[in-house]
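Before relying on records like the one below, remember that each one covers exactly one chain. Contacts with other chains, cofactors or solvent are not represented anywhere in the record.
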Amino acid sequence: MMTDIDLLKKIKSGEKDAFNELMDLYAHKVINTCYRFLLNREDAEDISQEVFIEVFQSINSFRGDSKLSTWIYRIAVTKCLDEIKKRNRKKRIASLKQILHIEEVANWLTGGTMPDKSIQEKEKLKELMQALNILPDNQRIAFTLSKMEGYNNSEIAAIMNTTTIAVESLVSRAGKKVKGELESILKNNS
């Protein structure tokens, strides 16, 4: 298997297939990372394309201070945050309605048929996202990368360009806030 260093050398030397190899290696994970932030598959795919355009345009300036994957995910997180800032609240709510099939859940609540398991799972995701939306950006990023993406604290620190201790604190504070918010949501729904 080719190392990141070998792949970088091939890309920088202009080998045509090398960048495609890089995309094959990281595209799926970048799309999933974007999806966790944007909650919309199409938006995640669009932003991931922007991520790889930026990677392609700036690959020659990559110094290797961090792992290639860390650099790529840092670009992805930054692009996602930029996209979130661009959205207004109304657009976000409309997008969530579409993704979470709220109409089907509303139909069930007013006497229609029971939603299938995927809709129930989407409702749980909706509640989690509602809890995550109360977090400040840095806590939401750290918590999402840790608990939903499975990165360890040192990897998150590299992606967020901060210290491991800061990441531990962010994840801990976010966890407490999310737990409190979920308890509040559950209490209001019962």
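Residues 1-87 form a domain with the Rna Polymerase Sigma Factor; Chain: A fold (CATH 1.10.1740.10).
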